Amino acid sequence: MLVVATLGMAPLAASTAATPADGALPLEASAEIAATAEIVPLVEAPVAAPAAESMPVEAPATTRLGSGTASYYANKFHGRRTANGESFDNGAMTAAHRTLPFGSIVRVTNPANGRSVVVRINDRGPFTRGRMIDVSRAAAEELGLITRGHATVDLELIKG
Length: 160
Known about the structure:
The chain has 160 residues and is of the alpha/beta class. Helices cover 19% and strands 27% of the residues.
């Protein structure tokens, strides 16, 4: 209130009461303001750089592992120990590979239907000649392998 009194300004309630109902200033007041008004150029506010979490995440680099036959293993192995010691789960997105390190993340793509899944290597195999990878039943369903039991797939290593 001290600033208001020093500058000779009326409190908001008093100035509001003095203005017409439509909110326009009386003609005398607008002419007085126009005569004493100072024109100040607008300055754009600096734009902050986007936060790191809002930046698009680059897709991880992948390494093509080639094409081969994939099959699936399911019911008779469900609940049994895998080669890395964990319990095999039909519903998990996991797979068996002969040489990839446990924990490797692999994208398996069925080029016949364009379907793709990402699986984690947690077991050794397949032990059937001519097969490149065995996937869990859940992964097989996503890839469309259930009817035939196997299909030619493309493999990409996402994380090794």
